[in-house]
Amino acid sequence: MALLALQQGEKILDLGCxxxxxxxxxxxxxxxxxxxxxxxxxxxxxxxxxxHIRFLIQDATQLKFENExxxxxxxxxxxxxxxxxxxLHGIYRCLK
Length: 96
Fold this sequence. Notes:
Blueprint: E1 11-15, H1 21-27, E2 32-37, H2 40-49, E3 54-57, E4 71-73, H3 84-94
Parallel strand pairs: 1-2, 1-4, 2-3
């Protein structure tokens, strides 16, 4: 987390957030964060555990954000994605 050098109020996207544990850790730094995951089950678990955080079901290859985030965080998701170039273009589009 220290490598992220998060600033109070920064808007962060957690890509492949899973059950939301790291999403919540980032939230506790004062960042504004949205967690996305392809798995409906993971998003349901995250939403139950952390109702104060916005979680969305979204495929990393079809991100629906544009110019919204200071940073995109992903802990253990990118290595599972076969369409890396598509995802990277989507991440770039998400960033301010």
